[in-house]
Amino acid sequence: MALSQTLIRRLKDPKPFETIVTAPWLVSPASERTFEVFNPSTGELLAELPDMGVAETRAAIDRAAVAQPEWAGLTARDRSDMLWRWHQLIVLHTDDLAAILTAEMGKPLAEAKSEVSHAAAYLQWYAEEANRIYGETIAAPSLDRRMLVIKQPIGVVGAITPWNFPASMVARKISPALAAGCAVVLKPAEQTPLVAGAMFALAHEAGFPPGVVNLIYASEGDAVGRELCTHPAVRKISFTGSTEVGRLLMRQCSDQVKKLSLELGGNAPFIVFDDADVDAAVDGAIQAKFRNAGQTCVSANRLYVQSGVHDEFARKFIERVQTLSVGDGFQPDVAIGPLIDTRALAKIEGHVADALDKGGSVRCGGRRIDGDGTFFAPTVLTGITRDMRVAQEETFGPLAPIIRFDDATQVVREANDTIYGLAAYFYASNLSRVWRVAEALEYGMVGINTGRMSSEAAPFGGMKQSGMGREGSRHGLEDYLEMKYLCMGGI
What we know:
Layout: H1 3-11, H2 17-20, E1 34-38, E2 45-50, H3 54-73, H4 76-92, H5 94-105, H6 109-129, E3 136-138, E4 146-153, E5 156-160, H7 168-180, E6 184-187, H8 194-206, E7 213-215, H9 221-230, E8 234-240, H10 243-254, E9 259-263, E10 268-272, H11 278-290, E11 300-306, H12 307-321, H13 342-357, E12 361-364, E13 368-369, E14 375-376, E15 379-382, H14 389-392, E16 399-405, H15 408-416, E17 420-421, E18 423-427, H16 431-440, E19 445-448, E20 463-464, E21 467-468, H17 473-478, E22 481-488
Parallel strand pairs: 5-6, 5-8, 6-7, 8-9, 10-11, 10-18, 11-16, 15-16, 18-19
Antiparallel strand pairs: 1-2, 3-4, 4-22, 9-21, 12-15, 13-14, 17-20
Helix pairs in contact: 1-5, 3-9, 4-6, 4-7, 4-8, 5-6, 5-8, 6-7, 9-10, 11-12
């Protein structure tokens, strides 16, 4: 039977702990508490999982701490080979993993398959990077000494992943940690834990030693996160989620001066200048705004369009948005799945209502879609001003506000006028403008004439209150390594 059918059937067993407790990557539950996982498209119960807390997290950390020295002591080639095997198993089971992902998160199956492939790409990348952890020698100031630098794994890593990309975020955090020689304790989002469980099953099949990869299921992240941040055996925390939670984790880690990687909220501007290719800009805006139903941290949140092309862009963009089909991710030709829950629906409705109260116009969509799922029609608003919530807050849904602008210098100032600095996009053809705007935007990632820029080979991360550190690329590996200077005298 396919992995997806087997996993979900076992999790829905009346005795859910029968297979869960014996999984090598899970500690035994300390209580009989459980929580439920639902399909946001249908409301169907998918699974009942053990609801873990401090005791289980502590036990998982202890297991990781025991496994850490042996894992760090392997050769880079050994760690690389295991990551390669895991990569190959992910590729082999792409369809199954995508089916689990669509069932628990709702995104269209084609998007889910693309995400699983992206996850596999991170494993492949860091399987290769594991062999490229280099030190250096330094010219000594005297003939009787030698100076050099080595890099060593930081130690046990606590990772917390979000619900919107539950497969790729697992791989993006775990693969560099494992490549560097770090054991990992992962807590996936409570809304989407099943694909993480399936990926860990494949990691076990790939041959990772006991205690190297550990999974914590929990309906609430507070207790688990606090234990990860305060336990002295955990040397690093990697978190993707809201800026509010990121601030909390920083405070909890501060007493131990624990190393952190944080990928937090965004408020991405998408700027279309008069000299842009309007058709290409429309294509890019559709990608940047409506992928994953707008539920991405790098989603275009504010669409600034210069007056000379505003009307043309708005007309063509609205025409495209009206063709986007909404529905269950398993149905053919569906472009947009559900929002993750009713709170997400309420937020987008609040943004629409606030914009209308302050003079904005709904050009298409603007309403939730009746049915069992948490669906919202793809929406375009015009007549947007800076005092509206939609221009100030991250919506995290299929809502595109179009803001007209005249002055190119002023629009960059407005784009930067936010506490966030994760991603930005702009379309222009004048080379001088391209360089000036790219350098002036206060964002960790800038898409120029493209609406999609994520890659395992590129550094992903933000500035300001969008986080610290980078994931992906060779830079992503450095966050899991400690630099040690060795000075040898008496030569």
